[in-house]
Amino acid sequence: MAISLTLYGLVLLPFVAALVIAVNSGGRRALHSGLAAAASAAGLALILSLAPRVLAGEIPRVAAAWVPAIGLDFTVMLDPLGLLFAGLILGIGLLVMVFAHFYLAPEEATGRFFASLMLFQGAMLGIVLSGNVLLLLVFWELTSLSSFLLIGFWRDKAEARQGARMALAVTGGGGLVLIAGMVLLGLAAGSFDLLTILGRGDIVRASPLYPVMLLLILIGCFTKSAQFPFHFWLPHAMAAPTPVSAYLHSATMVKAGVFLLARLWPVLAGTDLYTIVVAGVGLVTMTFGAWVALFRHDLKSILAYSTISQLGLLVMLLGFSLELAAVAAVFHIINHAVFKAALFLSAGIVDHETGTRDIRRLGGLARVMPITAIVATLAAAAMAGLPPLGGFISKEMMLDETLAIGLFGLPWLVPVVATIAAALSAGYSLRLAIRLFFGAPRDAGHHARAHDPGVGMWLSPAVLVAIAVLLGLVPMQLAGPLVASVAGAVIGAPAPALGLSLWHGINLALAMSIVAIAVGVLLLWQHAALLGWYETARHLDAKRLFDRGLAATDAGVRRLVVAVHTPSLQRMVFAVFAVVVLLAVDGAMVGGGIFTGSRPGVPASPVAVLAWILLVAATVAVLRAQRRRFVALIFIGVIGTVIALAFVYLSAPDLALTQIAVEVVTIILLLLALNLLPKTPPLLSSPLRRWRDAGLAVSGGLGAGAAAWAMLTRNPNDPISHYHVANSYSGGGGTNIVNVTLVDFRAFDTLGEIIVLGIAGLAIYALLDTATRGSAGARLRSWQADMVHSPERHPVMFVMASRILLPLVLSAGVFIFLRGHNEPGGGFVAALVAAIAILLQYLASGFDWSDARRRIGEHVLIAFGVLIAVATGLGSLLFGANFLASAFGYFTLPIVGKFELATAMLFDLGVFAVVFGAVMLALAQLSHISQRAARAAAEPQGPPS
Amino acid sequence: MTLEFLMASAIGILVAGGIYLSLRARTFQVVLGLTLFSYAVNLFLFASGRLIVGRPPIWSRSVSDYADPLPQALVLTAIVITFGMTAFVVVLSLRSFLETGSDQVDGDNTANHSDVAP
């Protein structure tokens, strides 16, 4: 129990801290950094409390099912490898946060900074503690996202934004590839549980999926760990604040790829393919990165390329598939994390104090900043691989291992190239320290105010350098058990006996090490000549290639979209209808059987025939009245009225009421819109096109009519509405089955529908409210009235009649609403009737008069309606019933007599509010902008457009 | 002549008119087309409860046979939603005209279209 709490706490703590910091982002810098540091320290304490048990061989583990259907469990486990990385993430994180507190100015967005940093820390911890590979992927993507926020922290800088975007594109894209690889891995191993997979290495390596899976996973690791040819994002990520660089590129982000390689080492390593690809890529990256680092001038850029090189070294060691190489890799992971974080933080100090990071303009800083000089020089010496530092030991172990590996059948290849890379590393490390701190000051301006910072800033790098020194002096005592235990976890078996010490006797590795340092010194001595030669050579600009690649992809996608998605709506609509008609024809052919069913028809009365003729004639008239748009609207009204009559005749009184009411508001809406739309004569399509469209229209009409006929001449196949009929009164408390269905049986549908209606109303508002700006506003102001207006804008008769009608119509609305549960009516119809009553005032008395008397905004009504409907539904949950189940009871009052109250009525009230609000919002907004246009047109000199 | 035939043919005619108008070039015609099409769809949905005369679905102890209430409930909300959709499309086309100065669904590049007669 305690273990599971500790493990979950470990993973969740950073996220909680991120949330708390984000919520208090208005607070002071000390609050943000204090929370972040406290959370990191607490995490570190939890790790340390578990460390003895983990090092003793226990693996604390806790699992909870998350999405069992796909094998995704929330499994957290702490094995030695996870322990090492969690320790680095939290320990270096703590030091970085202390540093960042002093590095960032108080007026910067420290809340956002530390919240993002904690988010990132949580994601990294999640990766290293995941006991399920799918869970690991979740955290993996989260590191890509949160590092995007961190790299782009200074969002007003273009290079920060570009760097962040590039890092996200490369590492996020690699993450997607990794997902594919991990899924294949899980399929091959038969489980997504990490421990299970680790035990099935033989099965995985024998799987036919192995080569594909391996390459996909490697792409994921290489993009994250900035391996050639995916390395280019890392130098651009230097646009981040220095504490972020120190954190991301020493212990965390880029180490995630190395971590995953180490994590899956027992499963994936050991094959020829693995060795060639991983060791080869590592070797190339190590050499290439060191070579470029030698010629950089920006402090952080040197460190970026050195990071690429050092990661290449780690990848190469893991790629050797040798147990001792894995041990060397583990030890170097610790060394690199420590000295690289110290170097980045020192670079931050130099930048902070001198205002520049260009080493061509700096020099002799040891005199003014002695503490920083000691710290950074020792860290650089560790990076150069000089004794007596930890870097020397791991570099010598690395060189020793290269002797055991022959790539492409050439036993000398790897040792020689590795020695060259080591020489280059020594060269750039020494150059960094010597140019910065020794010799004469080169640019007096930058040194005038330079001095050592306060203890808060140099403490963190000093602690790290002290560790780096101790790792060289007393490696076995400090890291021996940890390295042995972690190496055992990487290998998947007890680690070979290791002797970490500075002196291994005189051997080939020592000779290589001496050669490397000597050549490094030589490189530094001849650096000016080399630099001249380097700068005359042509170099590929990875950023330009990346940008060009992005642009090409963008253009390609655009072409594809245009090819499959024609910008012509007419053509698209034609295609949609044509496909639907063809599908319907195809479906009808498959079904076979008889066209006309056996259900007896209802003989049509002469009135019905007359109505039908009216409808057909009105439809034809709409089609023919293209030039006279107002006339077309009248015919639309005729069609709607005929349909409403049909509803009356065919036992649907509720529908008839709704149809009539909707008809009125629709016609008003179309009239208002038509007023503003252009009145130029219609464009006639070419005859060919018209015939083609007519052909499609006729076949669509025939298809729909035939389907309706086939359906109407058959008996329904046991409809579910029997239930509605049987339970309407006894269960829903109402005799109007349609209304009970709406507010009770299928209230969830209704809830969705009123929400859609509310959204439509708000969208209309959004479209029209902003229409008075920009070119739309200019066009609106230049609108010309094209019809003769009545000299009397608001005829007195009409105004008086409408005002007398208002209370009457509203009473009718209330009546319709109240009777809705038992007789035709209800919220929908009542809302429409009430809307018409108010619209009448707008028509008669004008927009301004009516709008000034409006008490409640339509937005409020829509929100109120949705909330009331939802609250009614939730209320029924309180009573243990289903969501939106209604309750009702009968009460008796004097005079009124016996009456019924049902919660469904509350729901119907919500429906009423939304429908009323949406209708009024649409029409009032439309008449409002008509009004503005008319007013602008009426002024002789309108405002300039 | 049965009611069923009248209903089926009315649906067919409305669909045909709706499709034809939806394929026109100007927004107002398209809106009219959508309106006709919505009428047809609502009628079709309603017709799935079959055509029954004089038996509205108002429950009463003495009656046992009613018109199917479920399609009616569905159509009722459909009618209101249709209004919402029509209003939205109308406003969208109005805004599009105000922004671009053209009320054609494909914009005003008439030269590129063969379907425009002089």
* Low-pLDDT windows of residues of chain B: 110-118
Number of strands of chain A: 4
Radius of gyration of chain A (Å): 38 Å
User: What is the chain-wise order of helices and strands of chain B?
Assistant: HHH
How many helices of chain B? 3
Please state the structural category of chain B: mainly alpha
* Biggest sheet: strand arrangement of chain A: 1-2
Shape, per Cα inertia axes of chain A: elongated
The biggest sheet of chain A amounts to: 2 strands, antiparallel
Beta fraction of chain B: under 5%
Low confidence ranges of chain A: 941-945
Largest interface: A-B, 120 and 94 residues
Shape of chain B: elongated
What's the pLDDT, averaged over the residues of chain B? 85
Instruction: Count structural domains of chain B.
Output: 1
Question: Biggest sheet of chain B, in brief?
Answer: none
Secondary structure tally: strands of chain B:
0
Oligomer: heterodimer
> By helix and strand content of chain A, what is the structural category?
mainly alpha
Using only CA atoms, what is the Rg of chain B? Answer: 20 Å
Number of contiguous helices of chain A? 40
What does this molecule look like?
The complex is a heterodimer of chains A (945) and B (118). With 945 residues, chain A is an all-alpha fold. Chain A is 73% helix and 3% strand. Chain A has a two-stranded antiparallel sheet. In chain B, helix 1 packs antiparallel against helix 2 and helix 2 packs antiparallel against helix 3. Chain B has one domain. The C terminus of chain B is likely disordered. Chain B is an all-alpha fold.
Primary descriptors:
heterodimer; A: 945 residues; mainly alpha; two-stranded antiparallel ribbon; 40 helices; 3% strand; disordered C terminus; B: 118 residues; 3 helices; 62% helix; elongated
Short description:
The complex is a heterodimer of chains A (945) and B (118). With 945 residues, chain A is an all-alpha fold. Chain A has 40 helices and four strands.
